[in-house]
Amino acid sequence: QVQLVESGGGLVQTGGSLRLSCAASGRTFSSYAMGWFRQAPGKERDFVAAISRSGDRLRYADSVKGRFTISRDNAKNTVYLQMNNLNPEDTAVYYCAARSGLTSYSYYSGSGDYSYWGQGTQVTVSS
Known about the structure:
With 127 residues, the protein is mainly beta. The protein is 0% helix and 49% strand. A hairpin with a 5-residue loop joins strand 4 (32-39) and strand 5 (45-51).
């Protein structure tokens, strides 16, 4: 089992940047594929980005391609989401998620694929 704690959210102006972090407990972080999702008020939880166990396979939602970057540091048990050129449509609670990766290059974009979730961190982008 793994526990996830997100940090780094906040209020930023349009065009600004934030870096979210997700720290995982346990000694088997490198065996988990990781993902970021977001949920705006009144909307469903949407996929944002995913990364394989090894970190060499990435996937992004079309809405964030070219602006967001997911990465991980297995030595620090942490996954990151660098968010650049933010706009008000990015306002949401951002969640990180984990699941055992079937292979070192597996990544997952469905919320139902994940077994573990953090508590979320609020990102608000003002216009």
